[in-house]
Amino acid sequence: MNDPVKSGMATGERWAKLAARAVADRRLNATDVRVLAAIGIYAGRDGTAWPSQDRIAVDVGVERATVCRAIKRLRICGYLDRYRRRTPRGHFRNVYRLLYPAYVPLHPAGEILQM
Prior knowledge:
By secondary structure, the chain is an alpha+beta fold. The chain has helices spanning 20-24, 30-42, 53-60, 64-76; strands at 48-49, 80-86, 92-98. It has 4 helices and 3 strands. 19% of the residues are buried.
């Protein structure tokens, strides 16, 4: 990809790819979507990222406990997967994988339409 805007080279900023459906999903609150976007900023092309929960909390401007609750909701709703990986020093680190569920239009009331 040589597009300087999409790669962030034109502005010097990073971009986050997140499921558009998450923005309209009424099961999520605004903080949940911001946490998803913050993780997306650190994600590589394969959708995996490993920012610490403290780093996400600083980026979003919330407490670490709020990040933990948001991650739990994002996992339950199918937007995020999390697993633990051992570091070379023997510690464990959270690794997140962004999930992009199949697009299903949401009803204006926030309920999923049956197709």
